[in-house]
Amino acid sequence: MTGAAREALAATIDYAGSRTQFGRPIAGFQLTQKKLADMAVSLNQSQLVARRVGELKDAGRIKAHQISFGKFSNVRAALGICREARSILGGSGITTEYPVLRHALNLETVYTYEGTHEVHTLVLGSELTGLDAFR
Prior knowledge:
Blueprint: H1 2-18, E1 20-21, E2 24-25, H2 30-58, H3 64-89, H4 100-113, H5 117-129
Antiparallel strand pairs: 1-2
C-alpha cells in the first residue's frame, strides 16, 4: 500500500516539475504544492503506521484492532494519494504512461479483499466502544 502511494507521489513530483503551464512548471503553483505536501504527509504517516504495526507483530503483541487500524488507515491514505496524483497529472493521469491509475485500481481491490473497509470499521468501532456491531 505505501509502496504504491510512494511511487504515485514520485511520479507526480517528476511530472509536475516537467509539465509547464503559462510558461512555468506546474510544480511552482501554490495549489500543486499544497497537494504534493498533503500527499507527502499522508505517505509519511502511513509509513509510520506500517512500521509500528510491524514492530507490534514482531514483538508478539499485535491485536486484531491494530491490524484493522493499519489496513483501514493505509489503504485509505494510499487511495487518496493516488486520486490526488491523478488530479495533478490531469489527462495523463489516466494513461499507462504513469503508474497512478494502475495503483489506484489495485488499491480499490485491496480496499475490498483485505477484509473490506467496512469490517475494519466495525472492528475499530468495537474496540472503541466495547460493543460488537457485527455479531
